[in-house]
Amino acid sequence: MSTTDSAPGAQPRVDAADTSGATHRAVEAIWRIESGRLIAGLARVTGDVGIAEDMAQEALVAALEQWPRTGVPPNPAGWLMTTAKRRAIDAHRRESNFGRKAAVLGEEAVSGVDSDAVIDAMDDHVHDDVLRLLLTACHPVLSLESRVALTLRCLAGLSTDEIARAFLVPEATAAQRIVRAKNTLADRGVQFELPGPEELSERMSSVLEVVYLVFNEGYSATSGSDWTRPDLCNEAIRLGRLLAGLVPEEPEVHGLLALMEFQASRLPARVGPSGEAVLLPDQDRRLWDRLLVRRGLEGLTRAESLGKPLGPYSLQAGIAACHARALRADDTDWARIVSLYDVLVRVWPSPVVALNRAVAVSFLQGPEAGLKELETVAASGRLDLYPHLHAARGDLHARSGRLEEAAEAFARAAELSRNEADRATFTRRATELRGTPG
Amino acid sequence: MRYIIILKGTQPAGPPPEGLMEAIMGLGAEATASGSMIENAGLAPSATGAQVTVAAGELSVMDGPFAEAKEYISYAIYDVRSKEEAVEWASRFMQLHVDRWPGWEGTSDVVKIFGPEDFAPPQ
């Protein structure tokens, strides 16, 4: 990318007379596009993500001040980068103000004052820098919530206020998570570098965990009227796409992206006219987003073509693909789903996965067979408080004609559920089952 | 939210200048890597297509070329957070033409694709 200043006399792209806040919105849009690369480049020079993020923010503030007067420059990305770099260089030249910023820039940068070299250094290896930034923001020394906040802040360009609204916490809490994350990275001396191949795979799983957590936050909130939270699904998918470009050789990256795209493809069908949840078998599949389905299928093919054993995300994407391929619920390839679950329970021995497998078995071999599997899972006691265990049990009893047991199980599920839409669904099922003449 | 950006332009007299396609590919790769561009393709001259029209209750099919002065050239679908972000990508794309192809004129229509966010259920 070019980093030249706007040429004198060049026409600003947006009219300088900014009465409607249009420039402000344009600045925000450019920020969203550029902030990740900007912070990543600055982090490489400073070696400190926290300082890099501060400097990038300074460039944003400068843009918000100047562009409404001057208009958006012809090369806004270059302007932001140049401004941030100038600030970075100024910071370590200001010996009277020789704080942490200057210290971390290192001996050479300070004494040599070879500004051009510093600027050039930041233009190389953009690809690796963004990956480093992502790995650092998702570093295991950070708490999960700090990782999430820092990732959304540095890689998705979200403001503290947007992060706060998305996670239903006060703005001060979100700000604190980011500050704490930056401090932890500095205090623990986390290097802004790429780990070796062995550590990389472990670090990647932390990144994938953060991305999927962001997605699920949004997914679980899709019945609300505030689209800040469901928008998290899109943020997560964009992060997934970014990641797929950065580490295309890692099947789980494509698997996770495909999984998210399959799940998001159902969003338009997932909420009924009065805001109620519509479950998979009852969804109007014509509403599914075909573009996302197609991309999901392509991503899954890519994951499978890399010739490595499939991990939990790819396997879940494989299961989601079986649903996506079925134009009617009755066409679902349950045999394939059960066989994928058989592998998934081995690579990811979780009782929830085993429960989902039992439900899949019920569609392949009938409700009695499914119930048998389910009770095996339930016997461990680990899902006693999990509402979906009871709801699944209720459904299997209902399909087997045992309405009283079914109603009881749904009532238990409603009792345990903390999700309003789920609770309403479970309560309705319990009431309907009790009202059915037996 | 998704936008489809449809490029229309005057039928050029000669081939595009050297470096334009390269620059377009570069920008496309960047937009794809950032997760913003999720679909794109070039569009053949309208002579290869047709228009199916309903007027005065009558359906008619007419082979191309269309009467419009500008031809469709390409389209791209962007998944972005705001209209301004889509406009920014479209502006970068158009700027490549300004910088490399004197005399060329065209328009990128930035059109929102309806999405779930347009149909948020009542609270």
Can you put this structure into words, describing what you see?
Chain A: Residues 203-303 form the DUF6596 domain. Chain A: InterPro entries: DUF6596 (IPR046531), RNA_pol_sigma70_r2 (IPR007627), RNA_pol_sigma70_r4_t2 (IPR013249), RNA_pol_sigma_r2 (IPR013325), RNA_pol_sigma_r3/r4-like (IPR013324), TPR-like_helical_dom_sf (IPR011990), TPR_rpt (IPR019734), WH-like_DNA-bd_sf (IPR036388). Chain A: Residues 1-21 are annotated as: Disordered. Chain A: It holds the Pfam family DUF6596. Chain A: This is RNA polymerase subunit sigma-24. The complex is a heterodimer of chains A (438) and B (123). Among the domains of chain A are: 1-124, no CATH class; 126-230, no CATH class. Chain A is mostly helical and 438 residues long. Chain A has 20 helices and no strands. In chain A, helix 8 (160-166) packs across helix 9 (171-187) and helix 10 runs parallel beside helix 12 (251-265). The relative contact order of chain A is 0.06. The model of chain B has no long low-confidence stretch (mean pLDDT 91). Chain B is flat. In chain B, a hairpin with a 2-residue loop joins strand 3 and strand 4 (58-63). With 123 residues, chain B is α+β, with helices and mostly antiparallel strands. A four-stranded antiparallel beta sheet of chain B has the order 2-5-1-6. A two-stranded antiparallel ribbon of chain B has the order 3-4. Chain B starts with a strand and ends in a 10-residue tail after the last strand. The relative contact order of chain B is 0.31. In chain B, helix 1 (20-33) packs antiparallel against helix 2. Chain B has two helices and six strands. Chain B has a single domain (2-114), classed as Alpha-Beta Plaits (2-Layer Sandwich). Chain A binds chain B through residues 13, 22, 25-26, 28-30, 32-33, 36, 74, 76, 222-225, 227, 230-231, 234, 237-242, 245-246, 267-268, 271-275, 291, 295, and chain B through 1, 32-36, 38-39, 77, 79-82, 84-85, 87-89, 91, 95, 115-117, 119-123.
